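Predicting holo structure, PRP bound.
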Amino acid sequence: MSESADPLDRLPAAYRSQVEQVLIPREAIAAKLDVLAAEIDRDYADRELLLVGVLKGAIFVVADLHRRLEVPSAVDFMAVSSYGSATTSSGVVRIMKDLDTEIEGRDVLVVEDIVDSGLTLDYLLKNLRSRRPASVEVLSLLTKPSRREVDLPIRYVGFEVPDVFVVGYGLDFAEHYRGLSDIVTLRPEAYGG
Ligand code: PRP
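Done. Tokens:
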């Protein structure tokens, strides 16, 4: 592909007309995960890690991070549901799927696709800490600091994004766009904005 090719051309044809802009191309995501995985390998040398992916948005981050790690790591998932509207979260969280494993005494890394208000993660961290793990840290591919409502320690951050509606690489709108390889913004008419 030539340098000047339109980044939108790489998207599936069915979604292309709804996308406004490629915000973070797939190569930048891959490069960032390389850096974060190397950092995690250093930080957790001689330890074992449990990655806790928060469904569904984190599926690709978990898969792509897990494959990059040199430290021994296992994977588990939680699914939570927030009673918000389609595009904002309310902070009222319900666990739809809990971990399969006990985490007492283990080193846990929560893996998120995005931290927005922080309310989901705030709830999750309190919940996980009550199970007495050896440590709990957070990796989030994206963060929207301008939207934060609670102060949260995010140890590993991929990219800070402005307060725009982003989809792709796990992030959805009404369950669409998750499978896009790039993180993109949608045209307002695509999400009723
Ligand atoms: C997204 C994201 C976080 C949460 C962040 O999940 O994966 O879990 O919202 O928002 P907050 O910081 O404002 O709480 P979502 O509820 O969209 O579910 P999904 O991952 O299944 O798409």
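The helical segments are 13-16, 26-43, 59-68, 119-129, 188-191.
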